[in-house]
Structures are given as C-alpha cells and as structure tokens.
Amino acid sequence: MKIINTTKPLLVDNLYDYLKANLNRQFAEHRNEEINFDLLLNGQSIDIQKPDLYDGFLFRLTATGSNTLEVAKSEHYVDDVNVLTLESVLDDLFVKHLGATAPQI
After folding, report:
1. Which residues neighbour 29 within 8 Å (Cβ) at sequence distance 6 or greater?
2. Is there a contact between 3 and 98 (Cβ–Cβ < 8 Å)?
3. Which residues make beta-bridge pairs with 49?
4. pLDDT score, position 40
5. CA neighbours within 13 Å on the CB side: how many for 20?
6. Cα dihedral across residues 27, 68, 59, 38: positive or negative
7. CB count, 10 Å around CB of 75?
8. Model pTM score
9. Bigger pLDDT: 18 vs 101
10. Which 3-state string (H, E, C) describes the chain?
C-alpha cells in the first residue's frame, strides 16, 4: 500500500467524478486500446476493477484524511501491462487533480 499526500483537500466524491471523466480516456490514449474500467464508490473508498478480465479490484483508493489517500494495488496482477499502464495514468491524474506530492504507487 502506498500513502499519497496531497496539496489540495481530498473529497472522495470529487475524486470519483474526476476519475469517471478521465481515467478510461487517458488509459486509451496511453495504451492505444479501448478497455473501460469500472469505478465503484463505497463510502470513502473507490475500487477500480474490470470484472470480465480480472478477479477482484485492481486498485482501491481510500481517503484517510483531508489530504491523504491510501492506494492499495492488487497483488495478483503486478506485472500485467494493463495494470502498469493504469498505474501510470493514476499517478498522472493524482498530480493533476490532487496536487499529489508522492504520486508513485
């Protein structure tokens, strides 16, 4: 698990909306492949998954404070090219939207 500190206030609903609007589009640009990931909002957590390709979540993002985000990465797909691309996209989106100070997950 990685802890990401942000320079902007962390509101899970806003992060969810931002990821819904940008994650799949940016993934397609990076990977040149149309794979649409599902985002599930559950309280203070957002799960990123693709049930028809992967079992369980790929990433779980959990707000643990007003400026702290915990990012859990599934241990089952660490070398998968789609997951690595998704990880890079998330890093970029965290910097853009949250002002992440330690975006490497």
Report:
1. none
2. no
3. 38, 57
4. 98
5. 10
6. negative
7. 7
8. 0.90
9. 18
10. CEEEEECCCCCHHHHHHHHHHHHHHHHHHHHCCCCCCEEEEECCEEEEECCCCCCCEEEEEEEEECCEEEEEECCCCCCCHHHHHHHHHHHHHHHHHHCECCCCC
